[in-house]
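My current task is to audit a protein record that another person submitted. I need someone to confirm that the token line plausibly describes how this chain folds. Take the sequence as given and treat only the tokens as open to question. This is what I was given:
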Amino acid sequence: MVSVIYVVGLGIYSVSEWPNMLIMKPDEFATFLSGVFAPLAFLWLVLGFRQQGDELQNSARALWLQGEELRNSVEQQRQLVEVSREQLACEAAERVRTEQAAESAAQPRLTVGPAGGSYFGDGRRVLTISVTSGGPTCTDARMLLNAADVARTQVLVEGGRLETQVEYLSPAEVEPANILVQYNDLRGNPRQQRFLIPITEAGGPHRDRTLGDPVRLQD
């Protein structure tokens, strides 16, 4: 708009000074033109610099906004990753709990203990040791007493029993009973349970040695 006004004004001036401009020499006319258009060129230069500065400022603001958007996006992604990690950890923990519960439910509840015996006048005794299942059913069960395979069954159902008899020639020969029960659990996985029946001394003048209460051992 300023350039239009300037050019219009220059045209009006040229018309009013037209007789004088006709008698100008070429170098004088060139000087006149350079002097006339120099302010306009300087104005365009200033306006160009100002426009470029505005554009640079707008570009800088746009870059700053892009940086903020990128920062916000990174923060959102970090939060999503954190939430995903926590969710995966919860799911993994839940799977572990579910697997542990299924594993525990598949194991037979075994109880072990002396199941009576016979005592003879010469000090000899025959003690019965039994393993009773409280369910669930397991298969290929066998009972090892002090590493010796003493009893087995293809299917051990709830209420089923494995048992063996141990003969001692005298009370002094009674020793702790290490019992290992091996089986395939309800899911078909091979598992085992360990027990120890320690020695205890009975009352009376002879303080006879016999088997005490069983203890479950951890594998």
In short: Residues 2-102 form one domain. The first strand starts at residue 110 and ends at 119. The chain has a mean pLDDT of 80. Residues 26-105 form the longest helix (80 residues).
